[in-house]
Amino acid sequence: MQDPVSAINIPDVDVWQLLFEQPKEFSRHKSTAKTLQLFSDPDLKLTTSQTFTSTMPPLPPTVSRMSSNKRSNLAVIWGTHYCGGTVFPMNPAYTAKELTRQLLLSKTKAICTQRNFLPTVREAALEAGVSQAMTLIGPDESAGTNSLHDMLTLDVAPVPRLPVTSPEQDLAFLVFLTRVVSAEGLDVPTGEQDELWLKGATVFSCYLNDPKSTSECFSADGFFMTGDIVVKDSDGYFNILDRIKELIKYKGFQVAPAELEGILMCHPLAADVCVIGVDDERQATQVPMACVVLQ
After folding, report:
1. CB neighbour list of residue 258: distance below 8 Å, 6 or more residues apart
2. For the residues 148-167, what does the mean pLDDT come to?
3. pLDDT value at position 170?
4. Phi and psi at residue 64, in whole multiples of 5°?
5. Is the dihedral of CA 14, 20, 23, 27 positive or negative?
6. Which of 127, 148, 166, 293 has its CA 20 to 30 A from that of 172?
7. Could you give the domains of the chain?
8. The pLDDT of residue 50
9. Which of 15, 110, 101 minimizes the C-alpha distance to 61?
């Protein structure tokens, strides 16, 4: 399969090297610059040495993160990657039972979370046998936890970074083979919509310790079946239309709720719209039903 775009030179560096070990100017965009400066190389090494090295031997660890979106998450993510570990993100809406399953599945050694999630995390950690100290993201403190905020203020020697043994598996550039594939496994022509498949070194290789889920989303020839419904235009750009699981199956046709929602949102009285599929026994098929919030 030949990509129509001209060949480009791809540097053989991993993500960490690209972001933190090469000379660069910080972006002029204030938010981007503040984020990169806050979690620059020394701070991340500090987080690594204090949290993941001293409290969780042996390396590399598997660290579960259950938190809302915060800039502080970057220290956890990159600190873990720095010492060769694996980050396992958890849905903050998980119940203790759901979280326990994920902790066992991922073989988690430590957990980073926020104070408001502590009751759920502690219940799940006890059930899953995760005995290592937890780290709180942010300035909060609680008995039996470390504070990431405090760790970033300590003066400790950073640990050496583990070498990358296979940089081709951790490239800093998104390079994919792409296909738009029908339910029958056939490539569809340009301009027709169907599922996007991806393949490349930067596509995740598997669900951690979950071969069943992995086999369900990869084709026999190694393409990741994204579940996204797309259409590819004549210039090679992809427009994402919807998700397969959300498609409404009307008399053999696949109807994208997002397309109908877009049409209804054009009405001046519509503040918000959600289109779902409901069974119609008389027609023996699904039909769209719109839930509309008025202005």
Report:
1. 241, 242, 246, 275
2. 63
3. 57
4. -90, 135
5. positive
6. 148
7. 15-151 (3.40.50.980), 174-243 (2.30.38.10), 247-294 (3.30.300.30)
8. 47
9. 110
Least confident of 63-67, 130-134, 169-173, 211-215: 169-173
pLDDT in tens, 203-227: 888 888 888 989 999 999 999 999 8
- Are the beta carbons of 130 and 106 closer than 8 angstroms? no
**Measured distance CA(138)–CA(151) in Å, rounded:** 10
Torsion (CA) 217, 223, 224, 225 in degrees, nearest 10: -70
Q: Where are the alpha helices (DSSP H) in 52-108?
A: 73-82, 96-106
**Parallel, antiparallel, or unpaired: how do β-strands 110-113 and 62-66 relate?**
parallel
Other C-beta atoms lying within 10 Å of the C-beta of residue 64: 26
Flag whether pLDDT at 270 surpasses 70.
yes
Q: How far apart are CA 118 and CA 248, in angstroms?
A: 39
* 3-state DSSP assignment of residue 291: strand
- 103 compared with 142, residue with greater pLDDT: 103
- Collapsed DSSP state (helix, strand, coil) of residue 215: helix
